[in-house]
Design goal:
mainly alpha; 68% helix
Length: 84
């Protein structure tokens, strides 16, 4: 779970850097190679987000009670198991 969150954070960081390069390129000289490089960095970050989303495993984020419920084993309500 932590590795996937780090992946998303890193991709957002790359996207932020690409945006800064793109804006700096636009302000310094218009449509130059710097601007194109910034756009390509942003595009690579977006593709990385898509790849990370496709590889996402929702079962990794569920806790144990969710897994039991998915298998059809309903857990007992709190407080009723001790009185039997």
């Amino acid at each position: 779970m932590v590795s996937q969150l780090v992946t998303y954070e890193a991709l957002f960081g790359v996207q932020l850097v690409g945006t800064m390069v793109l804006v700096a390129g636009l302000f310094t000289g218009g449509l130059t190679m710097t601007t194109v490089a910034g756009g390509l960095i942003i595009l690579a970050a977006i593709v990385g987000h898509v790849v990370a989303a496709v590889r996402f495993d929702p079962d990794e984020f569920g806790d144990e009670s969710d897994r039991e419920r998915d298998r059809g084993q309903e857990p007992e309500p709190a407080g009723r198991g001790a009185s039997r």
